[in-house]
Design the sequence.
């Protein structure tokens, strides 16, 4: 594994709370919250074969698994882009996510080791498989979250799409940090040839705090070939987020079934979905 650090710092956006002061710059972000009623660093590059061999988590480490949806340039045919996924304490990762998800894999594919991907799932699902996945998201008490930008989002000229998404995602993770006594946070992104460089640049100054206390954090890339169950869960979360964002173009306020399964069937304290509508610079 290789590690790099950088002193890169962009003062434009520290988090996505409305009208939060960042140095001398203010940004206000109006957000569409679609989960219930509408309302308002460092990188370590991982390229191993199996995640269990290389990803070492302490019991009091918050493990955050992140995937994307859509295209980061919002090119034709891809009107949305977002980042999100799931989070769980290191001591609970096997019990709450990995082992139950391997049970889903075995049911759907016949083997607990065969990867399962959200975009292929509808084509291979047998009777009862969709209900089993819904039951997984209803029963397992892990955090799930998503941040989305669409072709209708009004971005600030001073802030790129990826920097905006970074700020929204950072705040979602920071809210989880306030609720638990984690000692550190590790954020694992599924690697993408197209987006890795942009994510790496945008998240260089990623920082988390519990109140005024700094919480150490590291970011990683992990390839799809690692077959990490938690990254597959993040894939299912973001597949649902992407479908919901596209549905919002036509029928905002109605929810697609997989989004309901992921976000509506559990304690709302475990969920957070944000669609950014407007980013403005305040004088």
Sequence:
């Amino acid at each position: 594994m290789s590690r790099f650090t950088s002193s890169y710092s962009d003062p434009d956006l520290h988090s996505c709370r409305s009208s939060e002061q960042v140095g001398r710059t203010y940004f206000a972000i109006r957000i569409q919250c679609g989960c219930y009623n509408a309302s308002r660093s460092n990188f370590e590059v991982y390229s191993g074969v199996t995640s269990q061999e290389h990803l070492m988590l302490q019991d009091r480490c918050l493990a955050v698994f992140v995937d994307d949806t859509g295209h980061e340039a919002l090119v034709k045919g891809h009107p949305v882009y977002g980042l999100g996924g799931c989070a769980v304490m290191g001591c609970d990762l096997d019990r709450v996510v990995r082992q139950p998800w391997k049970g889903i894999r075995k049911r759907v594919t016949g083997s607990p080791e065969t990867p399962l991907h959200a975009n292929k799932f509808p084509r291979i699902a047998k009777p009862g498989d969709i209900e089993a996945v819904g039951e997984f998201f209803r029963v397992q008490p892990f955090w799930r979250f998503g941040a989305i930008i669409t072709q209708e989002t009004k971005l600030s000229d001073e802030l790129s799409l990826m920097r905006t998404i970074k700020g929204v995602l950072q705040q979602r993770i920071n809210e989880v940090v306030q609720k638990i006594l984690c000692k550190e946070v590790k954020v694992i992104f599924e690697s993408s040839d197209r987006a890795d460089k942009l994510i790496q640049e945008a998240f260089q100054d990623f920082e988390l705090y519990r109140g005024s206390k700094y919480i150490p954090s590291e970011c990683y890339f992990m390839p799809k070939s690692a077959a990490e169950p938690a990254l597959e869960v993040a894939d299912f979360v973001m597949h649902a987020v992407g479908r919901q964002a596209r549905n919002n173009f036509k029928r905002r306020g109605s929810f697609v079934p997989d989004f309901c399964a992921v976000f509506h069937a559990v304690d709302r304290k475990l969920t957070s979905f944000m669609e950014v509508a407007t980013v403005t610079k305040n004088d």
